[in-house]
Each structure stands twice: as structure tokens, then as C-alpha cells.
């Protein structure tokens, strides 16, 4: 140990101060959690397989003994038994391929890939299959984000976060097969319902806090929360998805882009608009561009100032985002939305001047006025980082959340339950065979074309970055010789670090 290193005072447990600070950092906690889950899951499935195999042999021996079969008949049955065991073993070692999934329908489209509703042919499992091109991810510096998303999906054992079923790859693409959440994203629900009653707003935002709390417990900060990131399951409850930005550092290109947009509006005057005018403008924008959140010119309505400015930030940035979502639930528009992207950026730059309590004076609109306790909850979240709420414990104690059964949220009936015909119902997603629905994705398609025009990096594409990406239900490294006696991929843990 280098005794000359700064901070040599020992803390309990024999650690020096600098060592304790390192151990307590969110990044190290994240790595420790994921590594622990990796080894626990690996040995759980390995020992589980061995135990199940012993049970099958025990059952076979008990059956043949009870029937008092002859030696010749026993040899015949034992040969058949061994054949079945080889099939089980072969399935554990088989490399997963996209051809093993039957594509039912497309349910999502982004700048870097597509999402399909699919069924795994061998097991009949229904999943949302996310397909991304390796070279596109490499030239846009998005590989780390995909690896982090894979780690988060893999690590979760909670109903609040979308689960990962399989992760696999081929020479051109990487695939994430996730649980299919049939109720669509929360934006769809919000578009259909408009302003929410306070009791319903409290219900949904409480579930969203529960989702984000689970992510924080894993050591991650989402940083880009918006209604589109929350999915509605078959029972009407909420799940968090899309963890691409939940990593230690934002893409430098993105940071520069955000700061540049703020700098361009630094001299702009804030446009003062009435509550009704802002609500009307936002509805018009949504009607004209249903994929506003995916738009190139769309702005980060829910992103905290620290993130926009490229400044240091903490878990509380996700609470700012949830505060903006709560505001939209109750007001019908995000707190800083403007008539144009430039106006929205101006509002974000001057957020302390723009944040105002929505006020209605017409008798028919008075029901939309926020209660004092609801407005107080909003301003505890949309606040300067030094005073902003940053923990679930603080949320639970606020009067707005009085009566919320935090430990039993998913047992309470949701205000809205999706009407589904089957487990493969896609009615709450856009129809990718409909020209009308596809018109919503014009700017997303343009983004894809812009991405394709970006020059690839001069250094050769390194396929090694994807080592260890593979994952399956039978344990880490499934479909990559995932058995203890097989030749598992080297460096499986590299995706964690």
C-alpha cells in the first residue's frame, strides 16, 4: 500500500478514506452488483441443471425398478434416457439465432434499430425483439449504451423494470429479446386521457417513482425519463424501459449539442403565455407530430438543467424528470414546452421564470386547477439541485402521497386496464403497415438517414467489444457453451466494465 497517497486515515474495516470513497461510489457499487448477480445466476443455473439431472436419473431408476424390467429392456430404456439427456444438454449449448424467432409484427422504430413482437419457436415465448446494427452503434459511439442497457435488463429481478429474456448476436447485428409489455407506452395512455385526476396522477407517478427507485438501487441514473419510457402491462401497471443513457457518461457529442442549443437562446426573451394557450399549443404540436419525443427538432422537455449544461449531477436528475411528468399529468402539457423548439429551449434556459402554477378561471375549467399540496409536490421536484427531492423516502413523507401503499402498489387495481385480445395483441402500438401511422415516423426515418451518412471511424471495427453479450434463460453465457464444462466466451464480464 502506498502510504504516501493522500488520505491515509483508516476507516472502520481497515480501509483508507480514498478507498472507502471509491468503494462507496455509484459506479463501483454498480459493477459489484452486476458481478455478484452474474456469479450467483451462473452457479444457480449450473447447479440447478445438475440437481435436475440427478432427479431425472433417480426417477428413471425408480420407474424401472418398480416395473422390474429385464436387463435387455433396461438397456433399451437407458439408451433412450441418455438420448433425452443429450437433447437437453444440446439445447443448453445451442447458439441462439434470429431465425429461431417468428416475427409477428413491428412495434417500434428508433434511430439505431427496430423492435418487433416475436415468438421463440422452440418454447413459444412471446417477446419484444430489439434489433440493432453493430456498425451503426460503433460509428455513433453508442456501443457502451447498449451494453449498459443489456446489463440493467440482465440484472433486474423486479416487476418494475422490463426483463431481459435473451441477448445474442450475429456478425451484423445485436439483439435484445425482452418481455413484451402489451399496453403500449404511457404517452399513448396520456394522449387518450388528457389531463389526469389528481388521484390517478398520484397512482401513476407513485408507480413511476417505484420503477426509478429500483433502477437507482442498481446504481444507475436514467437521465432521460419521459412518458415514452414507461410501458403499461396487461394488468395496467407501469414498467420502466429504455436504459440506453443510464451509464456513467453521456456521449460528448450529445453534451455539446445540448449546451450549444442552450447557448443559442441565451439572449432570447421569455414568451409569456397563459395556461390555456400553452395547453392548446402543446396539443396542436402533439396532433401534428405524434412522435415528438423522437423528433430531431424535439427538445428534452423533461431533462434536468445539470444534464443539459453538462454539469455534475446526482440521482436527483431523475426526480426532476418525474416532477415534469407529474406537472404534465395535472396540467396537460410539460412545464417548459413552447410553441417552437427554440421557445422550449429558451424556457429551459430560464426555467425559474417559466415555472408557474397552471391557473384556469373559466367555471368549466376550474376542475383542472392544481391543489396546494399537488403544486407543492411539483415544486419539491422541479427545483434547484441543492434543495430538490432525491430519495423515495422524501417522496413517501410528502402529504401529496399520503395513503399510498408503497409496499403493495402492484396489488392495487389500476385506473386503466388494457383491453387485449391475446398475448400478441399490438393494438396499443403503432401499425407499421399503415401509411397514416408511418407518417409519424418521418423525422425518425430522417434521423436514420443522417446516421447512415455519418462516416465510419477510421480504425477497424472491433468485434471484441461484443464478447460476453450473449445471455439466456439458462444462465449467463447460454448459447455460448454456457455449461460449466464447456468453452464459455472469454471476458463475459467485460460488458459490465
Q: What CATH architecture label of the largest domain applies?
A: Orthogonal Bundle
Sheet with most strands: strand arrangement:
1-2-3-5-4
Q: Write the CATH fold name of the largest domain.
A: Transferase(Phosphotransferase), domain 1
State the CATH class of the largest domain.
Mainly Alpha
How would you name the oligomeric state of the polypeptide chains in this document?
A: single chain
Report the portion of residues in β strands.
5-15%
Going by CATH, the homologous superfamily of the largest domain would be Transferase(Phosphotransferase) domain 1
How many angstroms does the end-to-end distance come to? 24 Å
Give an overview of the whole structure.
- This protein has 497 residues and is of the alpha+beta class.
- The chain has 3 domains: 26-93; 98-181 and 448-496, Phosphorylase Kinase, domain 1; 186-428, Transferase(Phosphotransferase), domain 1 (Orthogonal Bundle).
- It contains 17 helices and 9 strands.
- The chain has helices at residues 17-23, 26-67, 71-93, 134-139, 143-155, 186-193, 198-217, 252-264, 275-288, 305-308, 316-331, 341-349, 351-354, 372-381, 392-397, 435-438, 442-453; strands at residues 101-109, 113-120, 126-133, 164-169, 173-179, 230-232, 238-240, 471-472, 475-476.
- It has a 5-stranded antiparallel sheet with strand order 1-2-3-5-4.
- Strand 2 and strand 3 (126-133) form a beta hairpin.
- Helix 7 (198-217) runs antiparallel to helix 11 and helix 11 packs antiparallel against helix 14.
- The longest helix has 42 residues, at 26-67.
- The protein is elongated, with a radius of gyration of 26 Å.
- The two termini are 24 Å apart.
- Mean pLDDT is 82; it is low at 1-7 and 474-497.
